[in-house]
Write a structure and sequence with these properties.
Elements: E1 2-5, E2 8-11, H1 23-47, E3 57-64, E4 67-71, E5 80-84, E6 88-95, E7 100-104, E8 116-123, E9 125-128, E10 136-137, E11 154-157, H2 180-185, E12 195-198, H3 204-213, E13 220-229, H4 231-243, E14 250-256, H5 261-280, E15 284-290, H6 292-305, H7 319-327, E16 341-349, H8 358-366, E17 369-373, H9 375-379, E18 392-393, H10 396-399, H11 402-408, H12 411-425, H13 433-449, H14 459-470, H15 482-492, H16 498-504, H17 512-526
Parallel strand pairs: 10-14, 12-16, 12-17, 13-14, 13-15, 15-16
Antiparallel strand pairs: 1-2, 3-4, 3-8, 4-7, 5-6, 5-8, 6-7, 9-11, 17-18
């Protein structure tokens, strides 16, 4: 009998045997393994060089309404994004030597002095792409419609330089609003900036909304930007867009009245960047800013809180610049750059019909024309309440179709004459026959230019009605029957030959044969509205 102790073999008589074969080899192998492992670790340790990422962190020194003062960020840049606790972001607005004034872009009630602030190393950007069409978002790209995450192709800065002059092309294609008085007398072209201004509750948003609804089937994408509006008003606009099927080609950017002023300030720039993405793809885009009065007030609030020096009406000195650099981005691009266009419809609210106030005059000088809505016309029931005398389009006339110019050329003058004579006739003055005819014709023009909300009129129907007006076919129709007579003419427009309708939407002028055929169709439609002459009594 024998047992093994360690590496020696001991027999039953106590004598030691020879060492076991291979025992020394196993010990050497184990030592080699450890040596190899430790050698590898040593080499890895010597070759490792830690990659240190610099992270600049500051602290909040004070909080006010919508702004924060931050210290400890010496390398921060102007308009750089800063991150606060709770995933709240802000924009570095005042970059001073000792502290940074930050505009906050979210609910800041949980922030307090001493909280940590971190640099993000980029400016404010917004997601862009086809995935945004039909969505409702806030200015920093967060969805508000409960449809899940946004699918975007890229992100673009909200502040971008406007296209250079040589990158632009003249405005040559009309943007049909579907509103007769605008398309005929104050035409808007694709790539134009047309201001809509008027007092409260005069129908400014309604005009913009009708224009969006009229873009169905015209290959024009729309971006509606609500700036500091009441939540109920925004909900009504969104419900209308959804009911009318316009949300299928519209992006809605929303800031409500209770949102921080920083979001209201960023909103129009974010909406413009979204529209610019589509414009650079060669597409036509319409942007509505509703409204820039709230935008100016939000910027004034931020500037005063950040202790910037106030100017006229307490607005800061660069209030003109923030709107000019926004609206200069709207243009018609050169064909070499895709030929896309961005049409801007900024809305401004006036006070007591004062269009010579600071912000309205700024926007009038920046834009290419204005549509002024008169409260007095609104009270008279003339809707849309467009004051033709104070409204103008400086660019759109070049883009207006030849057929429109042929039938609407004299209407503006005739309507202006009527308004002057109507004011004169109120004093009970005795009028000659020619003056009475001008007044009666003007009343028919006003009646024909009336239009209910959410009822855009097609180009063919508009040209038919306007030609009948210019030829004074409505003058014999009693005023109380004008609405029905106009509807009859619009329905009769379906009988116009197809080749004539195709010429409406081209640069070709209407021939005498075309005019004669349209007048004949309109005359037949109005025949039943002409009063019958009184019968002579038989003696």
């Amino acid at each position: 009998m024998s047992i093994t102790v360690g590496t020696e073999k001991i027999s039953s008589d106590g004598s030691k045997g020879a060492p076991l074969k291979g025992d020394n080899l196993n010990g050497d192998n184990l030592k080699n393994v450890f040596d190899t492992a430790f050698s590898g670790l040593s080499q890895a340790r010597e070759s490792f060089s830690p990659l240190l990422t610099p992270r600049e962190v500051g602290a909040i020194t004070s909080i006010a309404t919508g702004i924060a003062k931050v210290s400890g960020l010496p390398g921060v840049g102007f308009e750089e994004v800063l991150k606060f606790p709770g995933d709240i972001y802000g924009i570095a607005f005042n970059v001073d030597e000792d502290e940074v004034g930050v505009v906050l872009l979210g609910d800041y009630w949980h922030l307090q002095a001493g909280d940590e602030v971190e640099r993000r190393g980029h400016v404010v950007d917004v997601p862009v792409g086809d995935g945004l069409i039909g969505r409702i978002i806030n200015p920093i790209g967060q969805p508000l419609d409960g449809k899940g995450r946004l699918v975007s192709s890229e992100r673009l800065p909200v502040e971008r330089p406007a296209p250079a002059i040589l990158d632009r092309d003249p405005v040559t294609v009309p943007l049909q609003t579907g509103i007769k008085v605008i398309d005929a007398l104050i035409p808007v072209g694709r790539g134009q900036r047309e201001l809509i201004l008027g007092d409260r509750q005069t129908g400014k948003t309604a005009i913009a909304l009708d224009t969006i609804l009229n873009q169905r089937g015209k290959h024009v994408l729309c971006v509606y930007c609500a700036i500091g509006q009441r939540a109920s008003g925004v909900a009504k606009v969104i419900a209308t867009l959804r009911e009318q099927g316009a949300l299928e080609y519209t992006v809605v950017v929303v800031t409500e009245g209770n949102d921080p002023p920083g979001l209201a300030y960023v909103a129009p720039y974010a909406a413009t960047s979204i529209a610019e993405y589509f414009m650079q793809q060669g597409r036509d885009v319409l942007v509505v800013y509703d409204d820039l009065t709230h935008h100016a007030r939000a910027y004034r609030e931020l500037s005063l809180l950040l202790r910037r020096p106030p100017g006229r009406e307490a607005f800061p000195g660069d209030i003109f610049y923030i709107h000019s650099r926004l609206l200069e981005r709207a243009t018609h691009l050169h064909p070499d750059l895709g030929g896309g266009s961005m049409t801007a419809l900024p809305i401004i609210e006036t006070e007591a019909q004062d269009i010579s106030a600071y912000i309205p005059t700024n926007l009038i000088s920046i834009t290419d024309g204005q549509i002024y809505l008169s409260p007095s016309l609104f009270e008279l029931g003339v809707l849309p309440a467009v004051d033709v005398g104070k409204s103008v389009s400086r660019v759109g006339g070049k883009a207006q179709r030849a057929a429109y110019r042929a039938v609407a050329g004299d209407l503006k003058l005739a309507y202006a004459q009527f308004e002057e004579l109507e004011t004169f006739a109120r004093f009970g003055a005795r009028l000659d026959d020619n003056t009475r005819k001008i007044i009666e014709h003007g009343r028919r023009i006003r009646a024909c230019l009336k239009q209910p909300e959410l009822a855009p009129v097609s180009m063919t129907e508009q040209i038919t009605v306007l030609l009948a007006l210019s030829e004074k076919l409505f003058d014999a129709v009693p005023l109380e029957q004008m609405s029905a007579a106009e509807q009859a003419v619009r329905e009769a427009a379906a009988d116009i030959p197809t080749e004539v309708c195709e010429r409406f939407d081209s640069a070709k002028k209407l021939s005498e044969e075309d005019r004669a055929s349209i007048i004949r169709i309109a005359s037949l439609a109005l025949a039943s509205f002409h009063p019958e002459p009184p019968k002579k009594e038989e003696s």
